[in-house]
Design brief:
Layout (H helix, E strand, L loop, with lengths): L7 H19 L5 H19 L4 H8 L7 H9 L4 E2 L12 E8 L2 E8 L5 H6 L7 H17 L3 E7 L6 H5 L2 H14 L4 E10 H5 L6 E5 L3 E3 L3 H8 L6 H8 L3 H6 L5 E3 L10 H19 L4 H14 L6
Length: about 325
């Protein structure tokens, strides 16, 4: 297990507990009471730390190297029913954007999402979860295919942003994202969106228009990352913690501003501490959202979605 800087007190207690158990195994000393006391203190410390996380600490948790990525969720939700589909039929297949058909609790979904890598080689292969225009065009192709066959769409967001390279701009990055937003607003099938990690900028919005938008508890959703915001406003990354607070990017901030529909709770310590529970909770929210949408007519679905997004940003003095 890798620990973040604010998790060091937990690391120390877990190491103490491990040593205590080793002493008990290797000697005749009864360490039962000592282990219970350490365990109790460990639980108290975890609750104290994770119930009072700052915005920046939640950003750190969303990037935790052990956190489940999009394909981890897909495998857990769909098992062996997932069939990946490739290519935008225009340029090439973008490995940062995955998509395909899969069944969740017996219901077919077209699943689209950004995939990060878990080591140096796969991070380069997946371009760190930053999709090029062909990735967004692939996503739109799959969503239009789902619309043709009446299959609901599930999008899983986890990206530090769309790829900002020169070649991406030359191939129409801005237009590809704008086209996706335009088409998703009018899509004639239910769209459920889950932010499972980072939700940054237009890279997230390009697959983020949904009838139901859920955020996992330790994720963030914002027009810009705290580091980039800090570098623009203060010409330095040193103020990223202040930027994170000012951006109001946590799940509770998003829910309060009515920009997402609900927050998916995570196990104490984050989704990586208990993956099975996290996957099950995500599945429950997806199916709950689908059940609320499945009986709506096409006209009702599109009208409700348009109304939802038109209301965003309204402000009264």
């Amino acid at each position: 297990m890798e620990y973040l800087d604010f998790e060091l007190p937990i690391k120390e207690l877990e190491e103490q507990l491990e040593k205590c158990l080793v002493i008990g195994e290797e000697s005749d000393v009864d360490v039962t009471n000592t282990c219970k006391q350490i365990n109790k203190k460990l639980e108290e410390t975890k609750r104290k730390i994770y119930k009072n996380l700052t915005a920046w600490q939640r950003v750190q948790l969303s990037r935790h190297p052990s956190r489940p990525y999009t394909m981890d969720h897909v495998r857990a939700l769909c098992g062996d029913t997932f069939l990946e589909l490739f290519g935008d039929r225009g340029f090439k297949d973008d490995k940062a954007m995955i998509g395909g058909l899969g069944k969740i609790d017996g219901q077919s979904f077209m699943i689209v999402g950004q995939q990060k890598g878990f080591n140096t080689k796969t991070r380069q292969f997946r371009n760190f979860g930053m999709a090029n225009p062909e990735g967004y065009r692939k996503a739109l192709r799959l969503m239009k295919m789902a619309e043709k066959f009446g299959i609901p769409v599930l999008t899983l967001i986890d990206t530090p942003g769309a790829y900002p390279g020169l070649e991406a701009e030359e191939r129409g990055q801005g237009e590809a994202i704008a086209r996706n937003i335009f088409e998703m607003i009018r899509l004639k099938v239910p769209i459920i969106t889950v932010i499972v990690g980072e939700g940054a900028s237009g890279g997230a919005l390009g697959i983020g228009v949904g009838d139901k938008v859920y955020m996992m508890e330790n994720t963030w959703y914002s027009v810009i990352s705290p580091e980039s915001c800090s570098s623009i406003l203060w010409k330095s990354w040193e103020y990223k913690e202040q930027a994170a607070e000012a951006l109001k990017l946590t799940s509770s901030d998003m829910k309060r501003q009515k920009l997402v529909d609900d927050i998916i709770p995570e196990p104490l310590g984050g989704a990586h501490y208990d993956r099975a529970t996290a996957f099950k909770t995500v599945e429950q929210y997806i199916m709950k959202g689908f059940k609320e949408l499945k009986d709506l007519s096409t006209d009702q679905l599109v009208a409700q979605r348009m109304d939802k997004y038109c209301k965003m940003g309204e402000y009264k003095e």
